[in-house]
Each structure stands twice: as structure tokens, then as C-alpha cells.
Amino acid sequence: MVTCNIDRMDDKIKTFSKFGDTGRGGITRLSLSPAALEAREEFCRRCKALGMEIKTDDMANIYATLPGEDGLPAIMMGSHADSVKQGGNYDGILGVLTALEAAETIVTEKIPHKHPITVVIWTNEEGARFEPAMMSSGVITGKFDKDVMLASTDTEGVTFKEALEASGYMGEASNRMTPEKYMALLELHIEQGPVLEDEKIDIGVVEGVCGMINYEFTFVGQADHAGTTPMKYRKDALYAAVKTIQYLHDELDKLDSKLVYTTGKISAHPNIHTVIPDMVKFTLDARHQDPEVINQVLEIIKAIPKVVEKCEASYKEAWSRKTVHYYPEFIDYVEKNAKEFGYSSRRIYSGPGHDAQFITDVIPTTMIFVPSKDGHSHCEKEFTPLENCWKGANVLLQTILDIDKNN
Ligand SMILES: [Zn+2]
């Protein structure tokens, strides 16, 4: 089986780690920032050198294509090149660089292929500068309203539209990914969790993306003086919230061990050390691949009484997403190829969201995961050993070739 070049893989990772380098082992490469534009320029330079044709669409998604036979739709692979603030050198960009390395291998090894092969960069996956996350894959798949997205502003008051126009990468809407022009997407990504490394697995065969719910809870009590109000008269909204968080943990821990849940946001009003809090809000994010387990989470939420520690308790769904299932034929190819290369693999569901989960509604799609050291991600410690990146690129390349051959 043909393999990618590990030295070239190393060079790609090292080169792109310079764009937005924080000097502490990570990058800050917010979408369409100067650092992101440098990365895009280097990407386009390398693609052109390989003889690829570059197009961008109206959301500045980049499509770099190796030509194939006339009239056949292209096979896409890629991910995003933007990062969160003080993020790592692997999230997103590794999917772009492994795709670029696979394309480079096809060119240098003169591997025959029928379909055009496209390496894609999706704009603003992180939503770290302009909310929401997965903005551009969301717009072109009809999930988000483009005008609303264009009005999204960063902390400096710059709109996404202004950044898009200034970037030089805004192209025609007619260049967007459509099922007539593209037949498949493969996205390689770091796992962003500890499971693969923990189990000494090389390749995560991604079956889909976990469904999730996000609920906001509100507790209303009475603000009173911290020094004069005897304990028995208090309606302390923070105490009620804490009791409820404890209840949720106790009950949710009894459910399936693959369930993950988080209270990541909490606010207390008036948040003054001499005042009993009268209003506290917190969120609960819960994720699992099986909708039945998510239903069990909802039952636990519904069992919260209307009054907790003399405070009014209420909750509402902030947002949710159904479990996404990737394309079975491609999942099988990834598994087969990992096996044929002699790499260990296991099937896995993604907890985080990825562009691929939007694209899969339009064209057949799947993902490949590679391990994250100690599970760290969205931080400067994010790391995947070179050999794992290279193994991922090999599986990606072979899977693209299988799709080409069998369609
Ligand atoms: Zn990512």
C-alpha cells in the first residue's frame, strides 16, 4: 500500500505552527486574522505548486482541486485552519495538512484517480472570533442564515462581512460545495479527548457525532443582608442551584458511562459578598450518541421540583443537536484501511462538533480521528505525535483512493 511521506508531514506541521505562534507551543489564529491569512497564503502556494486549481466561495471556503476525468464529481478532504485563542497546532489544521500530504503523495507518486480530488479549508470553524462555530459549512448547507452571519462581530466591532471582504478570499457563491460537484468528504481530526491514547489506539473510526442538549436553569430567591438575615429566613438562590447541581451529578452518574455532562457556565446575582444571591443561573451540557440516554437525562431534569430550598426553580432548553451518523460505506473503508496498514483502531463517536457533521446532510461524509496526547485540546498543550499524524494521513489517502475506485 502506498504511504505518505513522514518528513513532508513533519515539515507541514512545523511550517503551519508558525502562523499565529504564541511562543509557548501553541497558536492564536482566529478566523480571517492576519495569522490565518498567512496560513491560507502558504496553503494556496503549496497547492498551486502541486498543480491544483484554487477556487473560493462567498464564505471564503477554499477548494484546491487536482483535476480528474471530465464530468465526474470531486472527492473532498480537509478541515479548518483557524484556532481558538491560545489554541494548539493540531485542531483543524491537521485535517488540512494530512489532506494536503495525501494530495501531494498522489501527485508525486503519480497515483491514478478518476475523480477530481479537492482539499478544502472551511472558514471560521471555531467561532472564536465571530460566533457561531462551524459558520461557513453551516451557511452553505443551509443551517445558518448568511445575512445574520455577515453581521456577526468580533470584540473590536469588526463584522464578519468586513473581515471577509478584506481577506481577499471571498469568491462566488457558485463555487460552493454542492452534491452535483462533490461526491464525498473525509475530515481527519484530532480526537480532542483521551480515549484513543489511553487505549493505545492509532486510528479512531468515527461513526458519527454525539447528540447533545444544553439546558439553562434559573433559581430565584430573595436578596437580603448577609449580616442580619438568620439562616432559617433565607431564600438563597445559590444554595438552591448548588443542591440541584449535586442532584444532577448524583443521578446522571447512574446512567451510561459514555455520557458526558458539564456545568460550564454559572452566574450569581447580585454577586456581592455581603448580599444573599437572589438569582442564579447555570447551564448543563450533556452528550451521548444514543437518543435514549439523552431522554433519560431529560427525565432527570424534569424531576427537579419547582421549589428548591425555598427558591423558585425553572429550566429551559437553550439548544440541542441530534446524533449525526456518518456514511457507513466510508466508515467501513476507514476501518479496513487501518487494519490493512496494521494500525490499531476502534469505532468512536465525536463529542465535539465538526464541519463534517453539516456537510454529511448534503454529501456522503465521514471522519478519521487520531490520538490527542493526554486528551488536551483547545490549549497550547495540544499534541499528536508525528507518527500518528502520518498514520492518519495514510488511512485518509487510502480511503480517498477506495472511494475513487469504487464509485
Ligand atoms: Zn476542529
UniProtKB/TrEMBL annotation:
Record text on cofactor binding: Binds 2 Zn(2+) ions per subunit.
A single MF term (Gene Ontology): hydrolase activity, acting on carbon-nitrogen (but not peptide) bonds, in linear amidines
UniProt keyword list: Hydrolase, Metal-binding, Zinc
Residues engaged in binding Zn(2+) 1: H80, D91, H189
Domain (Peptidase M20 dimerisation): residue spans on this chain: 210-304
Gene3D superfamilies, per database record: 3.30.70.360, Zn peptidases
EC number: 3.5.1.87
Leading EC class: hydrolase
Chain residues that bind Zn(2+) 2: D91, E126, H378
Cofactor entry: Zn(2+)
CDD domains: M20_bAS
Leader sequence residues: none
Tagged with keyword Hydrolase: yes
Pfam families in the cross-refs: M20_dimer, Peptidase_M20
InterPro entries: Amidase_Cbmase, Bact_exopeptidase_dim_dom, Peptidase_M20, Peptidase_M20_dimer
Family named by the database record: Belongs to the peptidase M20 family.
Record's protein name: Amidase, hydantoinase/carbamoylase family
Organism of derivation: Clostridium saccharoperbutylacetonicum N1-4(HMT)
